[in-house]
Amino acid sequence: MNYLADSTDIPGVTFHTPCDTQNSNGDGLPAADVAWFSIWIDGAYGEAPCKIKTASDSTVCDQFFGKINSSSINATANPHNQFIKTVCHELGHTAGLAHYNPLIDPFPEVPGAPGQPHDCQASGDVTLIVAKYNPPASWIWTYNQHHIDHINSWW
Ligand SMILES: [Zn+2]
Q1: How far is the CA of 118 from the centre of ligand 1 (A)?
Q2: Which has more pLDDT, 7 or 129?
Q3: What spacing in Å lies between the alpha carbon of 73 and ligand 1's midpoint?
Q4: Ligand 1 midpoint to CA 56 (Å)
Q5: Burial class (CB in 10 A: 0-12, 13-18, 19+), 21
Q6: Is residue 87 part of a domain?
Q7: Is residue 65 within a helix (H) or strand (E), and if so which, with residue range?
Q8: Ligand 1 centroid to 12 CA: how many Å?
Q9: Residues 6+ apart with CB under 8 A from 139
Q10: In a domain, 3, yes or no
Q11: 4, part of any domain
Q12: Quick one: CA torsion of 44, 48, 52, 57, rounded to 10 degrees?
């Protein structure tokens, strides 16, 4: 899985309707791995909680909810870019990535490893991050190589 923007065939994995938010334990039908919602969240642009853990292994998430706080994002200085970055960020969480905070002062957290470019796993307001680091525009919709390597090793 190198490019999440492209369709990716994962051998042996059947894709399911994104409308099915019931775990298979609930209705007997396979559910989507990530179900997306536009919903208010106190103090955050988005979040990706595990909704249901697998029946066979409680340490593995069977279904995430990708929650996007449209009201809060629309109030930012750059809602278009904030939406893109937030969706990319929450999708990264569902694939197992942690986030980092480049806006902490005086010791900002690094993007996964020293020397890695900023990517959408950065937490915070895109306008503030651009003002502080001015990363290439693609940072809001991409993962850096460190994060890509994690995803590829896990999946
Ligand atoms: Zn996060």
Answers
A1: 14
A2: 129
A3: 15
A4: 27
A5: middle
A6: yes
A7: strand 61-68
A8: 29
A9: 85, 117, 118, 119, 120, 122
A10: no
A11: no
A12: -130
Q: Return the number of other C-beta atoms located less than 10 Å from residue 128's C-beta.
A: 13
Å from CA of 60 to ligand 1 middle: 18
CA 98–ligand 1 middle distance (angstroms)? 7
- State the distance from the centre of ligand 1 to the C-alpha of 28, rounded, in angstroms: 31
pLDDT in tens, 23-61: 666 666 666 788 899 999 999 999 999 988 877 777 888
Q: By C-alpha distance, which of 78, 71, 82, 1 is closest to 37?
A: 71
Give the domain range for residue 55: 24-154
Residue 41 lies in a domain: yes
2 — pLDDT class (breaks 50, 70, 90): very low
| Strand pairing report for 61-68 and 46-47 | antiparallel
Residue 104: what pLDDT? Answer: 96
How many A from CA of 100 to the centre of ligand 1?
8
27 Cα–ligand 1 center, Å: 30
**Ligand 1 centre distance from Cα of residue 96 (Å):** 11
Q: Total structural domains in the chain?
A: 1
